[in-house]
Structures are given as C-alpha cells and as structure tokens.
Amino acid sequence: MLILQAFYWNCLDDWWEEIASIVEDIAIKGFDTVWLPPPSKGMNGKNSMGYDIKEHYNLDSKFGNKKTLKKLINKLHENEVEVMADLVLGHMLGGDREWNPHFKEKTYTRFEEKSFPKNHNNFCHECGDCSCRNNFGETICYYSDDEYMKKELINWAKWLKTEIGFDSFRLDNLKDMRWDFAKEFADEFREKTFMVGEYWDGDDRILKEFIDHSKLNLFNFPLYYSIKEMCMDPLFPIRSLEGVSSKNKVNFLSNHDIERDERDFNKDAIITNKELGYAYILFQDNPAVIYWNDYFRYGLKEKLDQLINLRKNSSDLPLEIIDLTDDIYHARRGRYNLIINNAVNDYHFSGLTVSGRDYVIFVQD
C-alpha cells in the first residue's frame, strides 16, 4: 500500500477542491490511498486543522463542507484511490462552560451538538493529570471509559464510512487513549477497514506491546528516527535499520507534526538527503507514506515518481537481504537491487534505474 498524506499544517482553505483538481495525477502516479486531515469542525472554525475537534458530525471546515468532501471522495473512488480519514478519538476542545462537580469548578465540557451531545459526565473526572490547559485557557478533556462515549465514537466512525465514503482510518495520538478502547474501536472495524495509529515513541518495545494488545498497525517511529540518523550522519551504522521490528508498521519520513512553519517544530525533521530515506522505505514490504510537501513542494517529485514506479514493478517480488553490515545495505527484489553505502556513487553500475546520494537501484539480469 502506498499512501499520500494529502495535506500539511495550515494548508490552503477550500483544500478539498485543491485535491480534487489533481486526483487523476495522484491515481496515475500509483498512490493507493489518500490520507485527508480531520474532516469535522474544530474549535477554531475556519482556522482549524481539525485536531481541536468540537462537532463530530459538522463537516463545515477550512477544507470545505460535506458536499465538497463527498465530491472529492467520489472522484477519488472513480479513479480507484481509497480515502483515509484522520480520527481524533482522545480529546475535544471548544465546549461551553458548565459547573463540573468532579473538579468543583467550571469546565468547558458542555457540547450541545444534537447528533452527539456531551457534558462533564462523559469526560475523565478521576485523575487530574489527564486534563491540561492550552494557550487559550480551554480545558482539553480526554475521554474516560464512558460507555456512551465509546459507543457514539464508534457510531460516528461508521457514519464517516457509510454516509461520507471513507475507506480507512488514521487514529490520532493513541498515547492519550485508553489501550482497551483502542482495541475495542479496532475490533469494530478491523475485518473490512485498514487502520493505522499514531503512537509517537521511538522505543520499539513499547510499540510492540501496544500492537500486541490492540492488534492495530502503527506508524513506524523507531524506524523513522533510525532513517533520520542515516540521512544526516555518514557514519551511521546501516545494519541497525534492520533491528527495528517491521510487523504491523507503516513507514514514513515526515508528517504535519514533524514539519511545520512554526519555529518550535521541525526539530525532528530530516533536513538532509531525505531522498535516501524514501529509497529505503519504498523498497520495503511495509505500507509507506509520502508526505505532501515532499512530493509537491520540496522538489522531490521527479525522483519520487521513479521510486514509486520501481515499487509498483517489484512489490510482488520477495525481498531478500543480500548483504548487511555497518557500511552497506544490499537488498534485492527479483532483478531489482538496492545498495546503500556512502561511497556507492563512486562506482559504475550497469542497468542503473534510480540513483541518488549514497544509494543506487539497478537491474541485474
């Protein structure tokens, strides 16, 4: 599976129409799935990226409305591209103030959306450290083990599939969700719906423990941090790439949280030789994500198209590791070979298909 993350932080208004204008190109290039930002109305209205979710069933947002969203999804489906919804299941913002007897103060926990009303009883009121304050002074309220909330969140996700047309889900910020609810949610959909969760942690053991419990796929943050070192450090021990578990993982090199215009972000971004990282993840068996900015804004489109085309031609072939040391990675799929080495560009390869700094992909008869 090849996924296009089809947005970036503070992308343009009327974004559904922007994507709709290039659907044919997305399909032709070989993307299987387009990942869209959270479609529901946020606290900040037309200035919201959707992660400050306020009204679940209200799809009027900076990106467009219900009509333009369904039109986009239908167009993607007509071009045999599936659509992934970004779901915020762990918190809400922008509620009205009400007296909260659990905290003995007023909190922003009253949400009067007719399709999914909520109040202080539906949010966590047992431990103070799961409520935090943002810069606006609002209370971010994390869902508890409330049966009403769990049932209605699942119903909302079902509505996004049946009424709006989404095919798959990305689950935001799983670190702030109960592990048991993550599993309950996944159990409702796993037979017919691809899902991948964001559990932002570089410790592969923690991700494995969560995967074993929830049976969810997760974004491969441990591999991301290893690839970042490889791209930015010529002395990186390449063999450590294969030390990261790949089971139930989705590989990626960037996203809307890693790279933003705000000064305090970007500290985790790969700023050198990202092309090398894409050569590696697009050669693997795992589902892979290409970030919008990398494809459309940062000048990597031509080389990424070559790597995508090679992936399409070789993905059905078994992956073999031919050589793996601290200095070299050599993998093969049928006749296609990928070599990563910081001196590889000094050598001549017949049948060269794609090459860049510190890597080559060539065909060997």
UniProtKB/TrEMBL annotation:
Pfam families: Alpha-amylase. One of its GO terms (biological process) is carbohydrate metabolic process. Residues 1-311 form the Glycosyl hydrolase family 13 catalytic domain. PANTHER family: ALPHA-AMYLASE. This is Alpha-amylase. InterPro entries: GH, GH13_cat_dom.
